Amino acid sequence: MDRAATAAKIAALIEPFNKKGVEVTDTTTFAGDLEFDSLTVMDFVAAIEDDFDIIISMNQQAEIENYGQLIDAVVKLQG
């Protein structure tokens, strides 16, 4: 799956977690812009892992700060 298709799929997954209706771009941060707490992050990561059939390690999660980095990580994990 290419980056654009991956981004579209993740955009659909993020919608229920985006309580404030923030416009999501590659530079949107999860903690700052979307105000995700640790539980929300865990639920969101689980949704991505299930949907894409991948595993995002805790080390990888710690390095992902914004939406663009998440898309790149998912694309990479898909091979």
What does this entry look like structurally?
This protein is mostly helical and 79 residues long. It has helices spanning 3-14, 38-52, 58-63, 67-77. It is globular and about 30 Å long. The termini are close together.
Task: Considering the chains and any ligands shown, give keywords for the structure.
Non-ribosomal Peptide Synthetase Peptidyl Carrier Protein, Chain A; 79 residues; mainly alpha
Short recap of the structure:
It is built from four helices and no strands. It is mainly alpha-helical and 79 residues long. The protein starts with a helix and ends with a helix.
Strand content: under 5%
Mean pLDDT level: 95
**Could you give the order of the helices and strands?**
HHHH
Shape: globular
Give the oligomeric state: single chain
Percent in helix? 55-70%
State the domain count: 1
